[in-house]
Amino acid sequence: MSISRVPTSRRTALALTLSAPLALASCDLDPPSPAPSQSPSTPPLPDADVVASARTAIRLTVALLDAVSARHRRLRAEISPLLDLHAAHLEVLDDGAEDEAVEAGLSAPTPAMARTQVADAENSLAGTLRDAARRASSGELARALASMSAAVSQRVIA
Fold it and tell me: Whole-prediction pTM value?
């Protein structure tokens, strides 16, 4: 089920576009260094799991956006800002861990259906990031994830 959104003005969209990278760049999300007594075989920090799941969700969405862009040239201009946003989010969440390969979902056959597919995927990603913010132990990480969720929600193509 699709939720109707109130369209944002160009001025608001431009302000968000320009301020989001600045807000994200100001976050320092480097994971704390392991304590000397902690060995490599100890389980990962709780926030490491949160970051890994958020990165995977973003990468799955990016894979779908790439598939839609490849199939529907007309939608590239609409999808490009979303890809830029997700690239910035992945950079903020980069913890140096090796990412597992993700497979893109199939793009819908028509541009209209693909637009709906993208909106659904973006809404799902916003919810995933919001849930990750609730699970984060670090206040900084929680704020960054909540900000990412809000940024994704504001850019959903409907």
Answer: 0.71
Length of the chain: 158
* Structural domain that includes position 142: 46-154
Per-position b or e across 21-34, b if 16+ CB within 10 A of its CB: eeebeebebeeeee
Tell me, what CATH number does 143's domain have? Answer: 1.20.1260
Give the total number of structural domains in the chain.
Answer: 1
Residue 25 lies in a domain: no
Supply 107's token pair.
Answer: 């793009």
- Of residues 14 and 116, more confidence is placed in 116
Token pair 């392991």 is found at: 34
- Looking at per-residue pLDDT, the higher value among 41 and 125 belongs to 125
Q: How far is CA 63 from CA 32, 38, 56, in A?
A: 30, 36, 10
Q: At what angle do helices 139-154 and 46-71 cross, to 10 degrees?
A: 20
Arithmetic mean of pLDDT, 52-58: 96
